[in-house]
């Protein structure tokens, strides 16, 4: 329940704002309390670490006017280094203690992202290995989607698309806007700009959050061919779902 409350605060399911900070703050407060009550529970510690490491990026996730800023484009100087240090310390002390659980693995993935000074220095092979372990422990289509993004970063966008295609028959994911957004990003990286623009538009139609819809619509518009040109120029390829 705390995980769901935090997620709703981090990215609202609908409405004009991307985040609801009061919800995230309350989830973190309750997670701290839970950790104090259960100091030896590794997953309680992992959940708190995950929240801290994720919430540390909140201020950089929106630009002027509340527009969504993807992870790869964020100004990392705006990340909360105090929360990052606390989260990394907590997960570093928790992981060696015993059996690893899903919250600890998600926290470890968030830590790898947060430790990278720039997007280009992200340790994607380590993230891929962590997602593979997470999918083994707690398989679900959203984990597979995120693993596909990591596969694309390590082995190329075609390999990522092949994995994403396995989700198109999964009723839990087949119509989810994040699947279309991830496909659009990988199609763009492959230079298939028309297909990418269509996937971005499909993702925008399915997104319930106004900032996400605006972001996805803008991505599609950026790929629209100019008059007299058959294809749009390649962009920075920052349409990854993670933020």
Question: What's the Cα radius of gyration?
Answer: 18 Å
Beta-strand fraction estimate: under 5%
Model regions low in confidence, pLDDT < 50 over at least 5 residues: 226-241
How many structural domains does the protein architecture include? Answer: 2
Summarize the structure.
With 243 residues, this protein is mainly α. It has helices spanning 2-10, 21-37, 42-55, 81-94, 102-115, 124-137, 141-155, 157-165, 177-189, 193-206, 210-222.
Provide structural commentary.
This protein has 243 residues and is mostly helical. It contains eleven helices and no strands. The chain has helices spanning 2-10, 21-37, 42-55, 81-94, 102-115, 124-137, 141-155, 157-165, 177-189, 193-206, 210-222. Helix 1 runs antiparallel to helix 2 (21-37), helix 3 (42-55) runs antiparallel to helix 4 and helix 9 runs antiparallel to helix 10.
Task: Produce the secondary structure layout.
Blueprint: H1 2-10, H2 21-37, H3 42-55, H4 81-94, H5 102-115, H6 124-137, H7 141-155, H8 157-165, H9 177-189, H10 193-206, H11 210-222
